[in-house]
6-phospho-beta-glucosidase (Loigolactobacillus jiayinensis), 479 residues
Amino acid sequence: MSEGMTMPKDFLWGGAVAAHQLEGGWQEGGKGVSIADVMTAGANGVPRRVTDGVQPGEVYPNHWGIDFYHRYPEDLKLFAEMGMTCFRTSIAWTRIFPNGDETEPNEAGLKFYDDLFTECLKNGIQPVVTLSHFEMPYHLVKAYGGWSNRKLIDFFVRFAEVCFKRYQHQVKYWMTFNEINNQTNWRDPHPLLQNSGLQLDDAANWEEAMYQAAHYEMVASALAVKLGHAINPDFQIGAMLAMCPIYPLTAKPTDIMMAERAMQTRYYYGDVQALGTYPAWVSKYWQRHDFQIDITAADRAALKAGTADYIGFSYYMSFVTKATKENPDFVYDEANDLVSNPYVEKSDWGWQIDPVGLRYGMNWMTDRWHKPLFIVENGFGAHDKLEADGSVHDPYRINYFHDHILQMEKAVVEDGVDLIGYTPWGHIDLISASTGEMAKRYGFIYVDQDDLGQGTLQRSRKDSFYWFQKVVATNGADL
Ligand code: BGP
């Protein structure tokens, strides 16, 4: 079977993780407590909870991750064996600024990433780095209200500056905020908290708060982009969006309008970060709903001056929406307005599997923002079975990747999309962000550990490991 197409020379093939989901060592090297450190395990339909600080008797899976903090030299060898030429990870903000508001960084934390990036480069793997991936210092949530507070801009920019300066010779590709748009329309406190550190009571206008927090984040991101380019003009600093295209359920014009408004609501972040300005509908929407968003002239200038060099994005699934008569103004509420797509399969966690949606999303973003793209997450969370001989047979994962990579290649080779690289999510099993489970596995590399952190932590190669190795070795030609 070889229907694949050869990708451009220098195309980056890699894997993606986030510090809080794999490092562990949560109290080592002077690290402070992050928002992820106070999130309990979920699983079996029970949502994760954010506790008020670390509480005795609760289970916090991000405390142990997969012990990458101690095992990274061994893991990087496996990544290199798979052929990876890049590795997307994040810098835990709390390793560099344990509380977030210090003026001096923590040297032990800086040294950890120095060593990690050096080890990556030794293995022929270039690091691709996210500055903030769901792991802001918990102190910033408690003492400042997270991104509801303008002061966070300065704290983030200081953090970015320290990282840019320290790693300017090791890292070229950066991203500011992971899935900045994933806080859109979430009444459930968990995604709001993880992205923005917002803890809203029932009385608060969650939507207004979300727009305000996102604005401060986007200003911080733009300032960081500008500063990064001054530190090293070769830096490529990207936005990072969760791309889930939203389709209309039917060809009914009102369904089409509803889907359009849903796309506008979910992706205005991309308009701001790629084009440097808010789209027209947003201000009208704020006026109509009487949202008082604090935006200064200096903010607008900063957004214009610090547009992203590329659009990094995750792609797991597509969504479907439809108009209802209770919602004549097409206000998009992600918690309530999504319906099932009758034409696609779902994963065990209900995520709709839609390879063509990847090609669709890539075309849509290219035509809208005219920036290079970088697929920095894509993958299939599944239950795996470790056989007695250490093997794991995961044809379902190979099928998922086969179908998605094929669509990615069509977007590049046939549609002319400018794509920097492809880093499958969780190429080594790690803690799930949404559920805190270990059982929701994405990896090509199996890690022997259960939901409670029990296991040998031994790494083994799944069938998909060898499959992906072949894809990389042929630059995408052999799928
Ligand atoms: C994205 C996050 C990742 C990652 C992934 C898979 O939203 O950027 O951190 O976890 O989704 O999600 P999950 O772990 O919930 O299955």
Notes: Residues 12-473 form a domain with the TIM Barrel fold (CATH 3.20.20.80). The pocket of 6-O-phosphono-beta-D-galactopyranose is lined by residues 18, 21, 178-179, 242, 314, 377, 381, 425, 432-435, 440 (CB under 6 Å).
